[in-house]
Amino acid sequence: MKRFIVLCLALWAGVSGVRADEGMWLLPYLQKLNIKDMKARGFRLSAEDIYDVNRYAIKDAVVIFGGGCTGEVVSDRGLVLTNHHCGFGAIQQHSTVERDYLKNGFWAMSDREEIPTPGLTVTFIRRIEDVSDRILSQLDDSLSEQDRTVKVVQAIAMVKSQTKLDRPGQEVEIKDFFGGNQYLLFVKEVYTDVRLVGAPPSSIGKFGGDTDNWMWPRHTGDFSIFRIYASPDGAPADYSEENVPYRPPVHLPVSVKGYKPGDFTMIIGFPGSTERYKTSYEIDYTLDVANPNRIFIRGERQKLMMEDMLASDRVRIQYASKYSSSSNYWKNSIGENRGLKRQRVRERKLAEEEKFTEWANADPERRAKYGEALPLIRKAVEGSAPLRDRLQYFSEALIRGTEIIGAVGAAIPLINAEKQVDTSRIGEIAGKLQAFYKDYNPPTDRKIAKRMFGLLLDSLSAEELPSCFAVIRENFGGDADAYIDYVYDNSLFASPEKAEEFLRRPDANAFLNDPAYKMRREVVKTYNALVDSIRAFDSVFYRGHRLYVAGLMAMNPDKKYYPDANFTMRLSYGQVLPYEPQDAVYYDYFTTLDGVIAKEDPQNAYEFAVPDKLKELYRERDYGPYAEKGVLPVNFITTNDITGGNSGSPVMNRKGELIGLAFDGNWEAMSGDTVFEPRLQRTICVDIRYVLFIIDRFAGDTRLIDEMTIVR
């Protein structure tokens, strides 16, 4: 009966115009493009309540968290919610075998217990301004792509220099949109004193691990809590004991009223990258080269990482963040290739390109302006594909995959242009290496390096490899393992002890003759040569892409367009809705704690452990005010359009109240960064009631509940 009722609600929603909504919209244009539709779908506020040039609004409670996520301010004392996987690096940074916050969680029961997190920042967007006219007026169609790039850089510098800021320390960033057909200016304010306040154990925050990643149904408490600190006058300031909790002008109210199918949802955040204007040529490259490379190389590296992580708590803590970062887009690539093929995206793009070509050729003026767009893109993509193939192998297997290369890179500034030791930089280098070795296990890196070098020998020709591979052939009889053992046995950087000894008595000749330095030198030389070769194709592609996007917009002038995601603030709106991924399969729109308990798997405790305290609360049904009809909700899904970077974004109801945190997309719509799939695309969110339940009943950190504005 429940399924029948929900289906009826979903069908009612469909005939009433409630559907999946494509678009990651820029906030300054909501009044012009979106607000009428948003209100028709149930939104109760105005466009100015979201973004206003003259006063604070909802957008002022949404922040860039760290370098690639979103967060939201939820109290008048600078409390910030984001995803557990967004705070994962900070949690790992503070974890040791003795204080294992990844395994056991962390909860500060007072301000004094909140942990400063060096390097972590929170960024507010204070102002957004369209400066397209000021930049595009400096350009004309006769410019070569290289000259155009120079002119754009000069124009951006001029606009930045003329921008008035509200107070010292604010930053100005200008980004291009629609392939360089539009430019927006963003005034940012960066707070650098951000402290860890609370995080559930990974058995809650990462429940399901790789197995459940990108999947629905989901049962993950993907949240963590931080606090922004500022100088006493509220300005950004580096860490100091004198700093105080930041007093934001706006924070989001938190609703525990729940939701039902068809309810309006709004997400504001910083989606990282989409390619909705991608052509069939680029899809061919993604399907045939980029994703297979990533899947293969990362898969090999991750297997070896996981072996050592499961064997040692110390290594598990050291490599947890590295593994999580690698595996996320490894699985994404698997799902994307699956989705692109199942949704026949290449064929759909070809049809769009044929229509574009026909439209452009139908008019001499259009043909002159847009006719070269697709040929330029094809030339750039197909011409650069072999180079990008090799570059990806070097990036994944060597630059990213062989960690000792990173240690050498951190130490390179120690040797000056005269090939002498710059003693003034010893302290700086020592600090960088100390941070590197904190999360480095030499045996793990040695094992992975052997696999990565062997993989390259098997996959690329001798002419394509850096010259250090010639050393393997000539001096080690082609035995990559023997070469790696030689490097790691003799390098100054193969262990923290050796590096520390070298810094006590640094010697330029010893450094320049170090086998790991020589290896890195040849790898970077080959890598940079490839990058230089690709640049010529990049300029061809940029011109073609810019013309193609402009042409598409000219071809369909009545269509509402949004630019590809580029980690700038965007809004998407949609509804809470179930879906049917395939014949005879129905997915409800929410999950509960019942599902968490059912998924417990002692044979796979790394991914599916359930804390004893959570099981006790479940047995006693001790859910406090966070249950609905005796059931505790955990996750829910909406039709909002999001992508990477939206992790941690606030999911709001029609009144702008927080009902959840976005944290994932769904497996059936993994091609969504290229083509939005309205029937299948869903955003997976952690229910704010589950967040509050974990803080309150599981952790007992009720002071955090007390400082939020709870709407009951």
TrEMBL record:
<keyword id="KW-0378">Hydrolase</keyword>
<keyword id="KW-0031">Aminopeptidase</keyword>
<dbReference type="InterPro" id="IPR009003">
    <property type="entry name" value="Peptidase_S1_PA"/>
</dbReference>
<keyword id="KW-0720">Serine protease</keyword>
<comment type="similarity">
    <text>Belongs to the peptidase S46 family.</text>
</comment>
<comment type="function">
    <text>Catalyzes the removal of dipeptides from the N-terminus of oligopeptides.</text>
</comment>
<dbReference type="InterPro" id="IPR019500">
    <property type="entry name" value="Pep_S46"/>
</dbReference>
<dbReference type="InterPro" id="IPR043504">
    <property type="entry name" value="Peptidase_S1_PA_chymotrypsin"/>
</dbReference>
<protein>
    <recommendedName>
        <fullName>Dipeptidyl-peptidase</fullName>
        <ecNumber>3.4.14.-</ecNumber>
    </recommendedName>
</protein>
<keyword id="KW-0732">Signal</keyword>
<keyword id="KW-0645">Protease</keyword>
<dbReference type="Pfam" id="PF10459">
    <property type="entry name" value="Peptidase_S46"/>
</dbReference>
